[in-house]
Design brief:
The longest helix has 34 residues. The strands form four sheets. Strands 8-11-9-10 form a four-stranded mixed sheet, covered by helices on one side. The chain is of the alpha+beta class. It has a domain of 222 residues: Muramoyl-pentapeptide Carboxypeptidase, domain 2. It starts with a helix and ends in a 45-residue tail after the last helix.
Length: 387
């Protein structure tokens, strides 16, 4: 048999194949030793770690916000008739309501009711009796021809849509300082007639052309009744009463100076015995307050109404931040009894007394502001008593 180079190749190939795994192992081992000697670590492919499963957290369902509560003034302003309950004043003069209200007659022998469209001729029966008595006594003893009765309260009391902060429990009444005319006024006249201011042009003293002795007597007559706790008047009127030496000074302590009352007096009755839920004010002191107190009021008002030079406008107008509006009083802010008072308001419709609406046209030039003007007076200082 003849040997060729091909026959020699086969053994070499077999030996190479047999040595192949060992060579691979040695090569890997040798590579490790070389890396160790060089101070390096061979890179190996790490298996990715399994991420922990996320915990399923249930989101709280958002509770939809409902509409804000209806302001109490809307609820009480919509009532056209009194609550059919026993008469009682509930809460405080500026935070309460009225049950079993009575309306004063639109026309009496010695009084007439103004601003019929407002439907604010309702009050606690005891207060209505005091107003009628005052009108009669004023005509018989004080030379006062009769009362023009302004705002008393709404049919169920409570906050008003416009105007007063007080007058909520049927124990407050505004009596104009304009004498009653000698004829029965029409409903239109009662809407259009403006009350007469007792102030001079300086706004801090009495106008002698309109102020009379009869004005002083009717104010002191109101203060003389034991049931009347306070009579609020403008500080200039209080000062005029203090300086009048011909009138008795017995009840001057009840006549209290307060902002805005320059065309009417505000009589306030004490809590009646049938109203245990009525919150009283502190009783006035025995001093006539004709000294430092009234002088401080006059000095304060002189500073407010003193003429000032015009302030030049800045070149760059800086907008002033708008103050946050005060939160509206809601039914939840009033005494709990008021929920029963307002629970069943009369069906929609005009008041039996308010069949006149105020004209849209502006009042004639030169007319004086009506009884909403008290709300335009400067804010009372911290030392002033709250109404």
């Amino acid at each position: 048999m003849k040997f060729t180079p091909w026959h020699l190749t086969w053994p070499v190939l077999l030996v190479a194949i047999a040595m192949l795994p060992a060579s691979t192992h040695l090569s890997a081992q040798a590579g490790t030793e070389l890396h160790a000697a060089a101070g390096t670590t061979p890179q190996t492919t790490a298996k990715p770690k399994a991420k922990p499963a996320k915990k399923l957290v249930k989101k709280k369902a958002k509770v939809p916000k409902g509409p804000p509560p209806t302001p109490a003034k809307v609820l009480f302003g919509a009532a056209k008739a009194p609550a059919p309950l026993a008469a009682r004043a509930i809460g405080f003069y500026a935070k309460g309501c009225l049950a079993g209200a009575k309306a004063i007659s639109v026309d009496g022998p010695t009084w007439q009711v103004m601003r019929l469209s407002r439907n604010r001729m309702w009050g606690h029966p005891s207060l209505i009796a005091q107003i009628e008595r005052l009108s009669k006594d004023g005509k018989e003893h004080d030379g006062w021809p009769g009362l023009l009765v302004g705002d008393i309260s709404q049919p169920r009391g409570g906050p008003m849509l416009t105007g007063h902060a007080s007058h909520q429990i049927g124990l407050d009444a505004d009596i104009w300082l304009t004498p009653m005319p000698d004829h029965r006024m029409s409903k239109r006249e009662r809407e259009d007639l403006s009350a007469t201011s007792m102030l001079a042009e300086d706004r801090v003293s009495i106008n002698p052309q309109v102020w009379t002795e009869a004005h002083a007597r009717i104010i002191l007559r109101a203060a003389s009744y034991p049931q009347i706790e306070r009579v609020l008047v403008h500080p200039a009127i209080k000062k005029a009463l203090c300086e009048n030496k011909s009138l008795p000074r017995t009840h001057l302590n009840k006549v209290r100076p307060y902002w805005g009352h320059h065309y009417h007096m505000h009589i306030r009755m004490a809590c009646p015995k049938d109203s245990p839920g009525c919150t009283p004010q502190p009783v006035v002191g025995t001093e006539d307050s004709c000294g430092k107190e009234v002088d401080d009021w006059i000095a304060r008002m002189k500073r407010i109404y003193a003429p000032r030079p015009p302030i030049p406008e800045p070149k760059i107008a800086v907008p002033k931040p708008k103050p946050k509006p005060k939160p509206e009083i809601t039914l939840a802010d009033l005494p709990a009894e008021c929920r029963m008072v307002i629970g069943n308001t009369a069906p929609p419709g005009p008041s039996p007394f308010a069949d006149v609406t105020k004209p849209d046209a502006a009042k004639p030039a030169g007319s004086k502001p009506d009884d909403d003007a008290e709300n335009a007076e400067p804010a009372a200082p911290a030392m002033a008593r709250k109404k």
